[in-house]
Specification:
The chain is of the alpha+beta class. The protein is built from seven helices and eleven strands.
């Protein structure tokens, strides 16, 4: 009886192991073969991101070909959210206080918080290193429309505004009249992100080049004393 009982228990254990092995193999086969394409598609969806490459709106020139309205690309450093970890939050706030003493952190803040606008190329390189440790920070591109000239010329040029797609369109003056010619076509790109949402080096792929808008020439003439350096952006396009 003892020998028979031992054989029975052994058979039960072996049967259990066999069933487990079959189920495990079926599970592996299901995800490795049947669900392979779907799983790979989900992985690519998580790891890769597609984004638009903004185009620059065309310039408005005076009758002599001098630019009176044009678009400029700027970059801003923003705090998008606050780190959940107290240690990382304190370290980040300490760094912000050191480089941006005008911001008294922490305090009730409205996010996203603009830390610095119009970054220089050297600052972009510097702050890009911060993003690896603090993905809560972002360097955001901003396209601004700059308009110069007398109030009458500015009124004739008109204004732009963002539509629902985030694209600049003319809403008055020459900006509206020649909106089709001035508007460009945005491009498309794909990039792989790491677990913190940062771009992985050498993964940027441009799938469609951006096409800038055309320049138009108006019938007004800018005064000779117009100082471009003293003019401020009329509005933001993006």
């Amino acid at each position: 009886m003892a020998a028979g009982s031992f054989k029975f228990k052994t058979l039960m254990i072996l049967s259990f192991l066999l069933i487990w092995a079959v189920l495990a193999a079926a599970h592996v086969f299901y995800y490795a073969v049947i669900k392979q394409e779907e799983s790979l598609a989900e992985t690519r969806k998580i790891a890769w991101r597609e984004a638009a490459i903004p185009s620059l709106r065309g310039r408005i020139l005076d009758r002599n070909g001098i630019p009176a309205a044009w678009s400029e690309l700027h970059h801003n450093l923003i705090l998008e959210k606050v780190p959940e970890s107290r240690k990382r939050r304190e370290n980040l706030f300490r760094r912000i206080r050191r480089f941006f003493p005008e911001h008294e952190l922490p305090y009730p803040m409205k996010l996203p918080l603009l830390l610095k606008s119009d970054l220089s190329p050297e600052e972009i390189v510097l702050y890009s290193g911060w993003l690896r440790s603090y993905p809560e920070l972002r360097i955001v591109p901003v396209i601004r429309r700059v308009v110069i000239g007398t109030p009458e010329i500015r009124s004739q040029i008109g204004k732009t505004a963002l539509n629902n797609a985030g694209e600049a369109v003319g809403v008055s003056g020459l900006e509206r009249e020649y909106d089709l010619e001035l508007s460009g076509t945005s491009g498309r790109m794909t990039v792989m992100l790491d677990r913190n949402g940062n771009w992985c080096n050498d993964t940027l792929r441009i799938t469609r080049q951006a096409k800038n808008g055309e320049d138009i020439r108006a019938d007004f003439e800018l005064p000779p004393e117009t100082d471009v350096s003293q003019e401020l952006p009329e509005n933001e396009e993006d």
